[in-house]
Amino acid sequence: MDINKEAEHWTSQKLYVANLHNSKRLGIFASRLIKKGEAIFVFKGVEIRTEYNQYWEGEEWWIQIGHKKWLDPEGYGRFINHSCNPNSFVSKSVVLIALRDIHPLEEVTIDYDTTDWTFSAYDPFACKCGSENCRKVIEGYKSLPNNIREMYKRIGLIPKYLLEMEKQQSQ
Known about the structure:
The chain is of the alpha+beta class and 171 residues long. It has helices spanning 3-8, 146-154, 160-170, and strands spanning 15-19, 26-30, 39-42, 44-49, 63-66, 69-74, 81-82, 88-91, 95-98, 107-110, 125-126, 137-138. The N and C termini lie far apart (44 Å).
């Protein structure tokens, strides 16, 4: 599949897909002002139910939407990038919501550690977001530093399935 050709088909009045600055990677950018609390898009795609250890091999776009449930996203969901200082979050497992106003030409990002329990104890990956508070590694919710985890809980960013998994782990 030619990812650049696929990206050409995903434009809207709110978003567009383009190359990241000085990179061949793609990202999602705001075409207009997106207000805090505004729904940006709904993740769509094929739902996959599987054990974690069967899931990650080569499926770089999958996003966790429940316990042992992932979505292989289509459209914009394929191009959402991580930031340790995200401007949006995934609500109700599939709706992307603006955390703050997102200005035209600004990349739309999420914190991957707020969607997946773990990216594998054996395969965390380097963060290249460049934000001032960059954690340098993306490992999943279970490895988030406590202060960030608690802050995300206070503002309602953590999906119910991750809170339930956390509760099970602490018992």
